[in-house]
Amino acid sequence: MTREALADTLEQIALLLELKGENPFKVRAYKTGAETVLQFTGDIVGRARVNDLSGIKGLVDALRQKLHELASTGKLEYYENLKSEFPADIFDLFQIQGLGPKKVKAVYEALGVASVTDLKEACQSGAVAALPGFGKKSTEKILQSIAFREQNADRFRLDEVVGPVELILESLRSHPDCSMAEVAGSFRRGKETVHDVDFLVATSQPESVIDHFVNQEWVSQIIARGDTKASVNLQSGLQCDLRAVSTDEFACSLLYFTGSKEHNVALRGRANDRGYTLNEYRLSLQEGSDSADPPVFETETELYHFLGLGFVPPELRENSGELEAAEKGNLPRLVELENLRGTFHNHTTASDGRSSLEEMAEAAIELGLQYLGIADHSKSSFQANGLNEKRLLAQVKEIEKLNRKFADEGTSFKIFAGSEVDILKDGSLDFSDEILDQLDYAVASVHNAMTLSEADMTRRIIRAVSHPGITMLGHLTGRLLLKRNAYAVDVAAVIDACAATGTIIELNCSPWRLDMDWRWWPLAKEKGVKCSINPDAHHVDQLKNLWFGAKLARKGWLTREDVINTLPLGEVEGVIGV
DNA sequence: GCCGTTTTCGGCCCGACTGTTTTCAGTCG
Description:
Elements lengths: L2 H17 L4 H16 L4 H6 L11 H13 L3 H8 L5 H4 L7 H11 L4 H9 L11 H16 L4 E2 H16 L4 E6 L1 H5 L3 E2 L1 E8 L2 H9 L4 E7 L3 E6 L4 E7 L4 H9 L2 H13 L2 E3 L4 E3 L14 H7 L15 H7 L13 E2 L13 H10 L4 E7 L11 H21 L4 E9 L10 H4 L6 E3 L8 H12 L6 E2 L17 H11 L2 E5 L12 H6 L4 E4 L11 H10 L16 H5 L2
Parallel strand pairs: 4-7, 10-11, 11-12, 12-13, 13-14, 14-15, 15-16
Antiparallel strand pairs: 1-3, 2-4, 5-6, 6-7, 8-9
This protein binds one DNA strand through α2, α4, α7 and α9.
């Protein structure tokens, strides 16, 4: 039983109680209970197991007893009973945008809608539109949301994939018959979401490695299994494919299975021009060609060089100019995770984070960072417990105190006091200039009124980034990968405005966002706009989101010089204007 | 269901937006 599992159960109880139309304050008690469990500093699971939860605000008789039962037995009778009153798939309905507990309750009770499939049918038949409180537009919105879900049903965010990838790679590499193993495909290229994951091994005993691959405990279904390839589904539904080749074929295969298809096509054309033909196993002489016999390539680098190209990092292999650059020797030296010296835009328990200021600082020091920017929500983000002026200034004082402590201890580390300031609907900011002046830096972000027209949204954001108190723009498009599309905004115009005002654009590396999108960074770079790779961490563990950020920054052709948080403490202050 | 007490029960977190209404309920951040 984990902390997250305890909190999940309380949250699901809250949802079910809402469905039943229970007292909303009772519902809230369960929700805040879940939050309390998540934020508790200490071994909440252990304490729940031995029924030692006294004195924790928010957990009194009922919740304390339930947490004890859950932690000590792994089950909760109250929850099981509650669940049995509703169809098993009812939770899926809450994923539909625009459907909350009241509306789920309405379609369930009036129409017997118990799943997303039922809901779709009921929308199409007009039954939903006929319900009180619903209408034509609601029906359309629901159908749109269902379509979006269906479209993305077989795609996964990187955070859902990175764990399994490491596990499987390690398992393959530890097999005695496997001499090399790599992950290829869109994961290796650093796409923001993936459909499946491709693995490649070099072996002289393919059957034995494939046997090993399909018989792991995390495999839930074997889709296909042949002599040199196999496909399986993991419990999450993620499809993983394995190809087994010989050691001599490994480099060409890795190139081939990394893609993209378009990059490969261009590369094959280039091989043809030189009298060769390239496939997933090897480079061979074209029939009748008088070119020299090609060697066996041990690495992708050797193959690229043979074709007159510099090594193209996998992230750039989208056939968007990388081959031309590789030919001229103009490929950028891409930024690396290890180049990052610090980071901005992180939250603490002061707003909606789950780790305290001190814990976040300690975790950043542990990661080897020299500085950490704190940017808790501002007062308009009420749902996120945004800070008002008084609380913000108190936090600034607290940060100053901690910084003095670091200095006294001889620790070369600094916390930058900032804020994630809400961009209000008209583009004005949630804090006055006088308050912003007292901060080291400020991130401006949109958190509401996301349905403005493109023109209005663009005007709104440009007004905010043009404000002298704003250092950087947070998650430019507001997208939530596989969940919510970007709001309408003219990204190019915003980039122009940032270029004109010297405003930094964030690469928000929460795996839900990865925003601004990698496709826009080359333009931003061309215009001279700098990037800040920001984890948007709400917990110490999420500082590791920097890994996603570095990957996506590379995909956007960014170098160390383009990313401000590669600068050491002592230089970065100048850039953010401290 | 929890809190703060006025130790017994009333009060509990805001504001914008949307769509369905025609004054407001539900959703979302």
